[in-house]
Amino acid sequence: MSLQFRVLGSIAVLLLLSLLCGGTLLILHARSVVEVEIRTAFQGAENSVRDTLQSDVQHTVTMRQVVSSFEGQRHVRAALINEQEKVIVSSEIGRLKDPAPQWFARLMTPPPLSARFNIKLPQYPCVVELTSDPRSEIADVWDHASDAFLAMLLFCAATMTAVSLAVAYALRFFRRFQTGLLAISDGGYDARLDAKGPPEFVALAKGFNHMAARLKTFSESNQRLQQQIHSIQEEERTGIARDLHDEVGPYLFAIQVDANILAKSAEPQTRSMGAAIRDAALHVQTHVKEILRQLRPVSSLDFGLEPAIGDLIAFWARRHPDIRFARHIAATPGLDRRGEDVAYRIVQESLSNAVRHGKPTRIEIVIADLPDQVMVSVADDGGGLGQELAGGMSLGQMGLSGMRERLGTLGGHMTVEEVKGTGVCIRAFLPKIRELEIA
Ligand SMILES: Nc1ncnc2c1ncn2[C@@H]1O[C@H](COP(=O)(O)OP(=O)(O)OP(=O)(O)O)[C@@H](O)[C@H]1O
Ligand SMILES: [Mg+2]
């Protein structure tokens, strides 16, 4: 249940309860007002009739006058009744403006009041009867009560509108806040919130903006550090390759020369030992060459990304002739040398992973030129993740993290997707030269 629904729902329930209590109190109060009013009016009427009867009434004419004095009275009706219980004359209640609805009248009607006064005229004994009639009073009370209830209803509606506006305003801010946080979690450290509105929101927005600015600084310095680490690693790799080349190369050559001399010896045993040493030296030389190629593969980028990737494919195709390699490489993907280097390394490690950890029959390499970034993808059908072959053949699970680090130095990112249990697809996104220059 959303927060908005909870807040508005509880306020609506509270308002409804207060409306209910208010309405009940209103009805109870109105009921007592009607009762008191009718009783007072009735007592007044009784007193007035009693006063008249105390004087010496000699004729029915006087009694008729008494009854007609009640004509148009709002709460009490009078009637003159003869011995046979026939109404000789009766007064009428004043005209009702707007009678109250029946349900309200039923709630309000007090117990009926009536009084009879016997007049013992010698020739004409009769009775003056007074009865209460609350309709007019109930109509008045209905007028006031409905006005008061309408006012309460309007107050509740206004409160509800004001609260929903305030909640919607607050939630709008929190939605912006949430969008900002999501942007930050995706690395969008340029996200900022408008510092306006109530002071609490201004403080939150300022805090958010400060955090985003700090994260941006950290991310930039982290990127710079990664670039430094990357170039130091490259330098070390190049240094190791150079040392290996310079130190091991001459000795290998010397061993070969010496072995050749031994191989030409007149002594057959020495000759065969010389040949064996020469073969072993040749073997070591092939391996060292391979290591040097691995340490300094980037030099193949001198001829461009496409030929370098062609070399990689040829490297694996020689060892795995059963695998079909497909490649779609954009003509000018818009990468500088650093970008090409990272793209190359990603393809290199992905190919190596595909053949080492799966059993692919097909590997597809795509380098696509997208509007504001370059996508490098390597997809295989080798069985998917978790298809570890016997022996593992892992050098410490540093391949994927290495790819991410290299991408991080350029501000790129990557995903590792499992293609429906059939294989793995590595997709890396590199910013183009333009973005790199700004960064
Ligand atoms: N194409 C793939 N097919 C199947 N499994 C894969 C594939 N790519 C990666 N993996 C799995 O992901 C794991 C991590 O790969 P990563 O390249 O980081 O490490 P590694 O290859 O095991 O070791 P290293 O690359 O350091 O020699 C691998 O051990 C493997 O289980
Ligand atoms: Mg690997």
Give the end-to-end Cα distance, rounded to a whole number of Å: 43 Å
Which range does the strand content fall in?
A: 5-15%
Listed once per kind, the bound small molecules are: adenosine-5'-triphosphate, magnesium ion
Structural class designation: alpha+beta
Number of helices: 10
| Largest sheet data | 5 strands, mixed
The name CATH uses for the topology of the domain at 3-161 is: Beta-Lactamase
Overall geometric form: rod-shaped
Task: Give helix % range.
Answer: 55-70%
- CATH C-level class of the domain at 3-161: Alpha Beta
Query: Would you tell me the overall average pLDDT?
Result: 86
What's the β-strand tally? 9
Low-confidence stretches: 390-394, 435-439
Strand order of the largest sheet: 5-6-7-9-8
If you compute it from the alpha carbons, what radius of gyration comes out, rounded to the nearest whole angstrom?
Answer: 52 Å
